[in-house]
Amino acid sequence: EIVDFKQFFNRIIDRFELSKSQNVSFHRVLPEKQYFVEIDTDKLTQVIDNIISNALKYSPDGGNIRFGFTVKDTHMKVMVSDDGMGIPSANVERIFDRFYRVDRARARSMGGTGLGLAIAREMIEAHGGSIWVESEEGQGTTVFFTLEIEINEEGEWE
Ligand code: ATP
Ligand code: MG
């Protein structure tokens, strides 16, 4: 399916913003222009749902979550950033492993299985993109992923 990524992304963010129970603010910095991507919308929805629910799960009361994407050549880079508890640098590499969760005791109380990011990586790679995380303990976490752009709003094939 070919979709306007900004519209697709906004709809998912809206759904979380309307239903969230936490006191966490959402901020969006999205390009003016439309960019179309060819994606499996169910799978990409699952990926973005997990990234946003992780950001909410690990955000403090009064926290902020930032949503953005930038475009370079034929790629877009999507980012979701929180100012939550972060991930110790020794563990960052492992969070894409199946069933891996940073802190067992803390993780147990948060629910979940530790599969979300493993599935996200599989799905993003199946779309020809990549996904990675930058995090600093106590400062916050940013999840990035890339997607190929099909066409921009001027109808130029990228
Ligand atoms: P599931 O997604 O299956 O419900 P989960 O959220 O624990 O469970 P993942 O989404 O794969 O699993 O995340 C793996 C681990 O990475 C989490 O348990 C958490 O320890 C850490 N993590 C992921 N996102 C963040 C974040 N935004 N801030 C802090 N830690 C995170
Ligand atoms: Mg998760």
The helix count comes to 5
Q: List the ions, cofactors and other small molecules found in this model.
A: adenosine-5'-triphosphate, magnesium ion
How would you sum up the global shape?
A: globular
Spans where pLDDT lies below 50 across 5 or more residues: none
Largest sheet: 5 strands, mixed
Q: How much helicity do the residues have?
A: 25-40%
Topology order in helix (H) and strand (E) letters: EHEEHEEHHHEEE
Strand proportion: 25-35%
The gyration radius over C-alpha positions equals: 16 Å
Number of DSSP strand runs: 8
Query: Could you tell me the mean pLDDT?
Result: 92
Strands ordered across the widest β-sheet: 2-4-5-7-6
Please give the alpha-carbon distance between the first and last residues: 17 Å
Return the structural class: alpha+beta
Description:
With 158 residues, this protein is an alpha+beta fold. 34% of the residues lie in helices and 29% in strands. It contains 5 helices and 8 strands, in the order βαββαββαααβββ. The strands form 2 sheets. Strands 2-4-5-7-6 form a 5-stranded mixed beta sheet. Helix 1 crosses helix 2 (41-57) and helix 2 runs antiparallel to helix 5. The protein binds adenosine-5'-triphosphate and magnesium ion.
Task: Pick out its properties.
about 160 residues; alpha+beta; histidine kinase
